[in-house]
Amino acid sequence: MNYLNLGESGLKVSNLCLGTMTFGEADEKSFMHKVGCDEATSFAIMNRSLDAGINFFDTADVYGQDGLTERVIGNWFEQDKRRDEVVLATKFRFRMGHGPNSTGASRLRIMKTVEDSLRRLKTDRIDLYQIHMQDIDTPEDETLRALDDLVRQGKVLYLGASNYTAYRLMESLGISEMQGLERFIAIQMQYSLVTRDIEREHVPICERYNLGIIPWSPLAGGFLTGKYSKGQTSPDGARFEQWQERYNRINNDRNWRIIDAVREVAAEQEATPAQVALAWLLHKPAVTSVIFGARSLEQLEDNLKAGDLELSDETMKRLDDASAFELGYPYDFIQHIQGQW
């Protein structure tokens, strides 16, 4: 396992991050119904991950149902006593409860969500506290001042963001610098061979201002595992059975071209398509740690091997070319003139 500093901080995290969204069995009211694993399996996955060298776990208050995933992790901390081995990241922002102040990133909301997460996780601190999406109804300086207070109180150690537009991310970094507030050290964004949009602006920002990129959905919701074939229905028990609408969006010529290239590389490397897709991200210089999920120990073991998979420059170019995407204006105009954007 490789360990990298997260952004400009001294915090070292494994380049593979255990995503815990599938921990806990949610009922039919949750968007995670029938796609999670029970508590015993979750405990086994966390123990095996630590033993394999993964020290970075990511969760969120909305995962599972009513804080279910955070409660599962808290129960594991209480039982297995391995809290100090984990760099624990969680997120806040989306609705938890009823009423107008049960969603968003206001000061009032943040002061409540952090206490709720600490209680569910049965810990005295959150190592990386991330806003799950920018809140256009709340001024960015209000959010940052509240988060800065949490760092000064010791309840939170580092700050991160997720699902931010590039303009809002720049605004946030500017406010932190001008007002002497704690700044984000990392940004968690959707990033994969299928979804490369952040390469237009977010990746250059992160490289210039030294933010660690933490990709989520690196396997495009399971599409890049190679278990889907063009013209066929999704396999029984696959996640896309529950999320057919998402499958319909991903079902296009570009994405089938990508999976064909991934399968070819996997065959050459004696690896699985999932390992190739994860390794492609691990070879991107702006990426610090890639979040992957696992509902079983078998899935975990398969994904762990991605950390040891070496991809040559030629192989990376093949995958880049297969997953090429339309830059759009003004990026394509700039690239046409200067050869890059």
Give a description of the structure.
The protein has about 350 residues and is an alpha/beta fold. The chain is globular and about 50 Å long. An eight-stranded parallel beta sheet has the order 9-8-7-6-5-4-3-10. Strands 1-2 form a two-stranded antiparallel sheet. It has one domain: Alpha-Beta Barrel (TIM Barrel), CATH 3.20.20.100. Helix content is about 40%, strand content about 15%. The model has no long low-confidence stretch (mean pLDDT about 95). The protein has helices at about 40-50, 70-80, 105-120, 140-155, 165-180, 200-210, 245-250, 255-270, 275-280, 295-305, 315-320, 330-340, and strands at about 5, 10-15, 15-20, 55-60, 85-90, 125-130, 155-160, 185-190, 210-215, 290-295.
Any descriptors?
341 residues, alpha/beta, TIM Barrel, eight-stranded parallel sheet, two-stranded antiparallel ribbon, 10 strands, 40% helix, globular
Question: In terms of topology, how is this protein built?
Answer:
Layout: E1 3-5, E2 12-14, E3 16-19, H1 39-51, E4 56-58, H2 68-80, E5 87-92, H3 107-121, E6 126-131, H4 140-153, E7 156-162, H5 166-179, E8 184-190, H6 202-209, E9 212-216, H7 244-250, H8 253-269, H9 273-282, E10 290-293, H10 297-304, H11 313-322, H12 331-338
Parallel strand pairs: 3-4, 3-10, 4-5, 5-6, 6-7, 7-8, 8-9
Antiparallel strand pairs: 1-2
Helix pairs in contact: 1-2, 2-3, 3-4, 8-9, 8-11
